Automatic annotation (TrEMBL):
One of its GO terms (molecular function) is ATP binding. It comes from the Bacteria. This is DNA 3'-5' helicase. It comes from Microbispora catharanthi. One of its GO terms (biological process) is recombinational repair. PANTHER family: DNA 3'-5' HELICASE, UVRD / RECB / PCRA DNA HELICASE FAMILY MEMBER. InterPro entries: DNA_helicase_UvrD-like_C, DNA_helicase_UvrD/REP, P-loop_NTPase, UvrD-like_ATP-bd. It catalyses: ATP + H2O = ADP + phosphate + H(+); Couples ATP hydrolysis with the unwinding of duplex DNA by translocating in the 3'-5' direction. The lineage of its organism: Bacteria, Bacillati, Actinomycetota, Actinomycetes, Streptosporangiales. Residues 239-525 form the UvrD-like helicase ATP-binding domain. Gene3D superfamilies: P-loop containing nucleotide triphosphate hydrolases. Its EC number is 5.6.2.4. Keywords: ATP-binding, Helicase, Hydrolase, Isomerase, Nucleotide-binding.
Length: 686
């Protein structure tokens, strides 16, 4: 029987076929794997750049392209006959001699570039790579066929022009050198392209190279495994090198923090890390996020990765609020009563005193007192107040403390609590007993051996203290992913300040977003640093995309009615182009706009996801329409602290509103549509 490896490009090609052709292709691939009767057989390709390449007739007028070495077949893509032959003739395949991964080259395109580079070199200019000899370049894995082209380059623009034609493992180290970096810098870029360390590299051993390239090939050992690869989303099977490395590292001696921008694959890493820990069977695993809707989504996605029911039951998926609620309920013997947002707002209105309004007091309570777990006036008097712009002397702090305690007292008297109070109390309950959290001698505590945290940037310090108390300090205790630039709530905390000295790793490449949406989104977000999760600020420097696509569509309308008509027309066009309804989303800032858009689309017979900007958190779609991005709506006026009350808080509010819009816009992996009527939001890039 042949050994079959499937490429993610093949799955993308398969998904683009009509249903009958897709079914025939799947049947043919299954027959080929099992060496069954009527199985397709490899056919040689004339005038090809790689003698190992062949095609398989998989359906009427459709062929698969494979690279063959002995009994190993790497199934690259499926295309109409003529396109498949052209693909097979154009490409060659090799093994990176430095890190041992497989590389794909568009050899014909590179051959066509050579004359233009030669003409450019004749105009003068210093050779771009003159400081490095051929041996230096070969040592960092540069393909020998590429050296003549590199010697013709005289500017970074020449290298940028051929970037789409090069494997990323070739381009990345060369780009580091072209920017003036050292060979050590080039090696750092190259290291980020590998998932496994290779002791010995045989450039002719395709099988070993494929096994070192989890983002390029998945082996189907039998029909069941083939079915799993063909039917599950690609993220279940194919992990890019950093994703694979971080998710599958055997043991982290201290808590780990993975940060990265939109589309860098943080959630995928968290899911696969939770699955790895569950399979290790070293103790209960908690996969946690900040909202129940996201927890439900994570649970469904984890079900796709873990098929073994016994293993799956080792992972609890939830949000911090529910976990805190359960801990307190078990300790007290009854479910705790929660205060409604309206009742809480009324209590703060009653507590307002002098220049300290209800919003100021609420933020002071949540961002200073609860955040630092301050229990007495003396502690509050001595505390720092990071992120708060209004200076308070001792008398003012006494006034604020007494006003806050009035609300706390009223809540206690009514037997009601807020969610952050529950988190703080749950952390205290878990921390009362001393000893192993996994023991049975402490009823009412939530024992976990491992905790994996997604969307970490939106967790409050009280919630972090709860998570720290819920797992023993040991290897592989806390694995955390997040992005301060995608913060949707005003929660800022350095993990070290809550007893979590995490080792940080940073993802720089967005695999979901095309460069056009990414750059537009970064300009919308502001591109500046953001605080939280680590000491100091996290910058967006170096964040980039590898793929290119359409620029965001920004549309202005004369009034709201015309804007809704434009939305309906746009979504209808997307559906006519074959985009599935499940891959389209519409988002707006206000509940009224959400209802209006949902009604307009429903009346047109269109059913797609329509939600608030907050509701887009953690989701992914091919195409996204964000409507109502007008001045006076985004940013939402009632979400902003008055400048005369606290200018620093207002600046944070504006950044939070920017982050909210940024998150919604960066859910689009293919096309983004943004509309407004009247005057545009000041956040929209010029």
């Amino acid at each position: 029987m042949p050994r079959l490896a499937i490429s993610p490009e093949f799955l993308r090609g398969l998904g683009a076929l009509t249903r009958p052709v897709r079914r025939d292709v799947a049947v043919a691939v299954r027959r080929f794997l099992l060496n069954a009767s009527a199985a397709p057989h490899p056919e040689r390709v004339r005038n090809c750049r790689d003698s190992r390449i062949a095609t398989l007739r998989l359906a009427d007028r459709h062929r698969g392209v494979v690279v063959r070495q002995e009994d190993v077949y790497w199934l690259l893509t499926v295309l109409p006959d003529a396109e498949a032959w052209s693909y097979a003739q154009r490409h060659r395949f090799g093994v990176n001699t430095a890190i041992g991964i497989v590389e794909t080259w568009d050899a014909v395109a590179l051959e066509r570039v050579e004359p233009a580079l030669r003409r450019a070199s004749e105009t003068g200019g210093r050779p771009l790579f003159e400081n490095w000899c051929d041996a230096d370049l070969l040592n960092i894995g540069v393909d020998a066929h590429l050296l003549p082209l590199l010697r013709l380059m005289t500017s970074e623009s020449h290298l940028a022009a051929v970037e789409p034609l090069l494997p990323y493992s070739q381009y990345a180290p060369l780009a580091a050198l072209a920017r003036g970096g050292s060979l050590a810098a080039a090696w750092r870029e190259l290291d980020a392209c590998r998932s496994r360390v290779a002791d010995e590299i045989d450039p002719e051993d395709l099988l070993a190279a494929l096994r070192r390239s989890p983002d390029r090939a998945a082996f189907a050992a039998d029909a069941a495994e083939l079915e799993r690869i063909l039917t599950l989303p690609g993220w279940c099977t194919f992990l890019y090198p950093p994703q694979h490395t971080y998710a599958n590292w055997p043991a982290y001696e201290q808590p780990v923090l993975i940060t990265g921008g939109a589309g860098t694959g943080k959630t995928v890493i968290a899911l696969h890390r939770a699955a790895l820990l569950a399979r290790a069977a070293t103790g209960p695993v908690l996969l946690v996020t900040f909202s129940q809707s996201l927890a439900t989504e994570l649970s469904a996605r984890l079900d796709m990765i873990i098929k073994d029911e016994v293993v799956r039951k080792r992972v609890e998926v939830g949000n911090v609020d529910r976990i805190a609620h359960r801990i307190v309920a078990e300790a007290e013997g009854r479910a705790p009563a929660l205060v409604s947002s309206d009742d809480l707002a009324e209590l703060w209105q009653e507590a307002a005193v002098g220049r300290f309004g209800s919003a100021f007091l609420l933020r002071e309570w949540e961002q200073v007192i609860l955040a630092q777990n301050l229990r007495t006036l003396e502690e509050y008097q001595a505390a720092t107040r990071p992120g708060r712009g209004v200076r308070l002397d001792a008398d003012a702090r006494t006034t604020v403390w007494e006003a806050v305690q009035q609300v706390v007292r009223r809540l206690r008297e009514s037997g009601r609590r807020t969610l952050l109070q529950l988190a703080s109390e749950a952390a205290g309950l878990l921390g009362r007993a001393v000893g192993d959290l996994l023991g049975d001698e402490a009823p009412g505590r939530e024992p976990y051996r491992h905790i994996v945290v997604d969307e970490a940037q939106d967790l409050h310090p009280a919630q972090w203290r709860l998570l720290r108390a819920a797992v023993p300090a040991a290897p592989n205790d806390l694995f955390i992913v997040g992005d301060p630039h995608q913060r949707m709530f005003d929660t800022r905390v350095a993990l070290a300040d809550v007893g979590i000295p995490a080792r940080q790793f940073r993802l720089k490449i967005s695999r979901r977003l095309p460069a056009e949406i990414l750059s537009w989104g970064v300009r919308l977000r502001g591109g500046g640093p953001a605080d939280g999760l680590v000491a100091g600020n996290a910058a967006m420097y170096g964040y980039r995309a590898l793929d290119y696509g359409a620029r965001p569509m920004v549309r202005q309308y004369v009034d709201a009615e015309a804007e809704m008509a434009g939305l309906v027309s746009t979504v209808a066009e997307w559906l006519e182009e074959g985009v599935p309804t499940a891959q389209i989303a519409v988002a707006a800032r206000t509940p009224d706009l959400v209802r209006t858009a949902r009604t307009a689309l429903r009346e047109a017979g269109i059913t797609v996801k329509v939600t608030s900007l907050h509701g887009m958190k953690g989701l992914e779609f091919r195409r996204v329409a964000v409507i109502g991005v007008a001045d006076g709506i985004v940013p939402a006026p009632d979400a902003l602290t008055p400048a005369d009350e606290d200018p620093t808080a207002r600046a944070h509010d504006l950044q939070r509103e920017r982050g909210l819009l940024y998150v919604a816009c960066t859910r689009a992996g293919e096309l983004l549509y943004v509309s407004y009527s009247g005057r545009a939001s000041p956040f929209i890039p010029a």
